[in-house]
Design goal:
mainly alpha
């Protein structure tokens, strides 16, 4: 699978061309069902390869970069406001106090790691 040129780069996934004998590798790793029959319930698995796809696949890296950029531009000035903004964009709800505390703690930890 080659990456499409700029105008088609961000088209919806339903327009993705699937080769019948070779489905997209990242979707195979994420347990996408084959397209030969209707699937009402997908298999649920959790493997190290799935984590690597989500961390390194250009699709997800670009999406996370766009989320971060949008959060920095429109999410307010405080960490609290930015976390609420990004969380709401990703999940369509505001974080509860426990989730917010975990995210603020993670932010502090990552800042200390990447400043050194």
């Amino acid at each position: 699978y080659t990456q499409s040129p700029k105008p088609d780069l961000y088209r919806r996934g339903m327009y993705t061309v699937w080769k019948r004998t070779v489905p997209p590798p990242s979707l195979t790793i994420l347990d996408a069902p084959d397209r030969e029959k209707c699937t009402a319930r997908r298999a649920v698995t959790n493997t190290p390869l799935q984590a690597l796809v989500l961390l390194n696949d250009p699709t997800y890296v670009e999406a996370s970069r766009a989320l971060a950029d949008r959060t920095l531009r429109n999410g307010g000035r405080s960490d609290h406001a930015r976390i609420d903004f990004a969380f709401k964009l990703a999940t369509a709800r505001t974080p509860d106090p426990q989730e917010r505390a975990v995210l603020l703690g993670s932010l502090r930890e990552f800042r200390s790691i990447y400043r050194h």
